[in-house]
């Protein structure tokens, strides 16, 4: 097919996204005032707890089977490779243009985590419909597209909240600076004296938590005399360490409602008995599945509205971040797609993946999408780089209608 015809096919889904995002930006204007700060906050909560798990459940339950999971084994690996390559390129970018340390995690997160949770769900099925049997029968193409993109969305969500979250957490920490002056030395001497005083006093119970007033503040130690020898034991609490581990790795976010939607959807998809009960017009509980699917249908347009509303913030301050913005755009829309072509073509050459052109297109698309919206949510969570993230999101998403369309055209030209 001619390159221009492929370009028009690729342009259709991007125009849909642009129109909805523009509407979100209009609704967020001060003169309109519909999508204000509180409104966006409540919409984010609904998307997080209701729409996203419902969408992932309905897509996976409808399209994923045990056989398709085995066939799609390379898809999670491809997403992981995208994260590794993107974060590596971002590390070089941080060193090259000397990005401030507290923004290193933001840059690495934006380059590593592409919006593979939402955009492929719009782009690929729309291309199946608009492409005039470009990838074969429309119904078969749409069904396969939903299987590929729903699994992409599920894996992308897990990777984003387990990898990018820790990037931002590590680089948002402010290192403490210790000055060794005379007052510091005197303070250290006082600390040693207090420890000595405290250690000479046997506590009546090892479980006592309060210290004498002349002992160190905020230092929890337990003193006990056994056979005339003093022993100082540090307080050890297994539950406390477990809580610290979960807080550091954000397991609460990892096991978010969206993940439960993925788990339930995969279980129903791969167990034939459950599919017969829930999926299909003749299924006894098909109304339950249909209701959840209707909730999931509201997820994508709502998320795009929120993205459009948030992009207004990026209009301010973009002039001060030109080198960083240009560098991220080059990584996202030049380096990553070029490397992705080499990876997918190599997998095809060594017969690691099936010969389905639509599957190849989805794998290539992983490398060409703008940053994940979840990165913006994480910056608000840590309170670091919020304004910079808005500028990056604005620049990368404003470039998407042209650059992403061009790459989609190139990808279709390569796989067909």
Fraction of helical residues: over 70%
Give the beta-strand count.
Answer: 2
Number of helices: 18
Largest sheet: 2 strands, antiparallel
Distance between the termini: 8 Å
Q: Overall mean pLDDT score? A: 81
Give the CATH class of the largest domain: Mainly Alpha
CATH topology of the largest domain: Na+/H+ antiporter like fold
Strand order across the biggest sheet?
1-2
Shape: globular
Into how many domains do the coordinates divide? 2
H/E series:
HHHHHHHHEEHHHHHHHHHH
If you had to describe this structure to a student in words, what would you say it looks like?
It is a multi-pass membrane protein. Keywords: Auxin signaling pathway, Endoplasmic reticulum, Membrane, Transmembrane, Transmembrane helix, Transport. One of its GO terms (cellular component) is endoplasmic reticulum membrane. The protein is mainly alpha-helical and 416 residues long. The chain folds into two domains: 3-173 and 251-415, Na+/H+ antiporter like fold (Up-down Bundle), CATH 1.20.1530.20; 182-240, no CATH class. Helix content is 71%, strand content 3%. It is built from 18 helices and two strands. It has helices at 3-27, 37-63, 66-71, 74-97, 104-112, 119-130, 138-172, 182-199, 238-249, 251-254, 257-270, 272-278, 286-297, 299-311, 322-349, 357-365, 373-382, 386-415; strands at 221-226, 229-234. Strands 1-2 form a two-stranded antiparallel sheet. Helix 15 (322-349) runs parallel beside helix 18. The termini are close together.
List the main descriptive attributes of the protein structure presented here:
single chain, 416 residues, mainly alpha, Na+/H+ antiporter like fold, two-stranded antiparallel ribbon, 18 helices, 3% strand, globular
